[in-house]
Write a structure and sequence with these properties.
mainly beta, 8 strands, single chain
C-alpha cells in the first residue's frame, strides 16, 4: 500500500495543505482612513444576531493619515474605533452589510464619519457614526 505524501489527502480523506479560496464570499469592502492627529485602533467583529455572539475578525492599528481597506462577507458587523490609550470608544457602529456594499469610515479627532456607496444622506447627521441610520442600535 502506498504512503500518502505530505499534504495529499490520506486514506480517510483528510484535508490537504492547499489553502481554501474564500474570495468569492468576500463581497463587501470596508475602508478606513485615520484623519485624526493621534493613532486610532479599529476592531471589526462579526455579529451572530441569533445568539448575540461577537467574533473579532480584524484589528487595525492606524497612525495619522493611514488607510486600510479589507473585504469581508455580507453580515452584521460591529466596527469600533478607539483612540490609542483611551478606555472608551471614540465611536461604535453596528451595521448590516449586503453583497457588493462598499463602506467608508474616516476617523476624526472627535468623531467618525461614515458613508456608503450609492447612499445619499438626508441631512448632515447621517455623515457621522453617532447619528447615522447606517449604524443600527446596539452598535
Amino acid at each position: 500500500m502506498a504512503t500518502p505524501s505530505p499534504g495529499s489527502p490520506g486514506p480517510a480523506g483528510s484535508p490537504s495543505s492547499e489553502p481554501i479560496d474564500i474570495s468569492a464570499y468576500l463581497t463587501v469592502r470596508l475602508s478606513v482612513v485615520n484623519l485624526a492627529e493621534v493613532p486610532v485602533d479599529v476592531v471589526v467583529s462579526l455579529v451572530d444576531t441569533s445568539t448575540g455572539d461577537v467574533t473579532q475578525l480584524i484589528t487595525l492599528v492606524l497612525e495619522p493619515l493611514d488607510f486600510e481597506s479589507q473585504k469581508v462577507p455580507p453580515n452584521v458587523f460591529d466596527v469600533v474605533f478607539t483612540v490609542r490609550g483611551s478606555a472608551t470608544a471614540l465611536a461604535s457602529c453596528r451595521m448590516q452589510v449586503e453583497n457588493d456594499d462598499s463602506l467608508d469610515f474616516a476617523a476624526l479627532d472627535d468623531a467618525v464619519a461614515v458613508s456608503k456607496r450609492g447612499y445619499v444622506p438626508a441631512d448632515r447627521s447621517e455623515l457621522f457614526v453617532a447619528t447615522s441610520t447606517l449604524c443600527m442600535a446596539g452598535g
